[in-house]
Amino acid sequence: MRGIKDFIVSIPKKYSDTFKTESGIELYADRRFSIKKVANTIVEVVEVPFNYSGNIKKGSLLFIDSTVLMQQDYAIGGEQENINLLDKKNNLYKVEQCLIILYQVNKDCKWMAFGDYFLAEKIQIKKEFLTSSLIIMLEDSKPSFENNKCKVFIPNQYLIENKIEKNNIIFTSKNNGVDVIFMDKEYLWLRNRDAIASEPFFV
Q1: Contact yes or no for 118/91 (Cβ under 8 A)
Q2: Vertex 141: Cα angle to 138 and 142 (nearest 5)
Q3: Domain count for the chain
Q4: pLDDT, tens digit, for every residue of 91-135?
């Protein structure tokens, strides 16, 4: 089986029973609680599309948007099936190229950004609490983030060519990007067009 425009990937299990927090604690969760946290979004390539000549090969790993697993359509008899499922017996799915975020040529290589996408970290705003009060409101104790600044985590080739590298601060339009979970941590999935300006910052 080979896709004409899409990648064919293997996803043995759509959802995990557990997920890890950023501190490494493993928790059990019903997928109704948070599909993004338990979705298995790192998949293996079985076939590449016709006329594709990029770096991704059979056996490469992809980090994909979790909507690939969420998209459903009604089948005959009212049973819901995923519209991306091609072969239920072998757990093969099709993945559109626009839903690929990162790729890894093989397990010994580093993760690379796909196309004009890249990953960035949100920048948390430090809050100062008044010590004169014994009550801290729950809303105030939640972390808040800059809504137009982030730190590049995995740049793409376009950013690298323009001297924007990992840990550089970039300015974006307010509230741009999609939240994704990669390696048990939350990042922003952005496109080149989301980046307005950059500011060198190394840690």
Answers
A1: no
A2: 95
A3: 2
A4: 999 999 999 999 999 888 899 999 999 999 988 876 655 555 555
- Convert the chain into a string of H (helix), E (strand) and C (coil): CCCCCCEEEECCCCECCEEECCCCCEEECCCCCCHHHHECCEEEEEECCCCCCCCCCCCCEEEECCHHHHCEEECHHHCEEECCEEECCCCEEEECHHHEEEEECCCCCCCEECCCEEEEEEEEECCCCCCCCCCCCHHHHCCEEEEEEEEEEECCHHHHHCCCCCCCEEEECCCCCEEEEECCEEEEEEEHHHEEEEECCCC
Same domain, 13 and 107: yes
- Separation CA 181–CA 64 (nearest Å): 10
Note whether 99 and 139 are same-domain residues. Answer: no
Residue 54: both structure tokens together: 């990029």
Q: Which amino acid is at 153?
A: F
pLDDT tens by residue, 19-65: 777 777 777 776 666 777 888 999 999 999 998 999 999 999 999 99
Distances (CA, A) of 134 to 130, 131, 138, 172: 9, 7, 13, 38
pLDDT number for residue 1: 74
Shared domain for 11 and 95, answered yes or no, is: yes
Residue 180 has pLDDT above 80, yes or no: yes
- pTM of the entire predicted model: 0.82
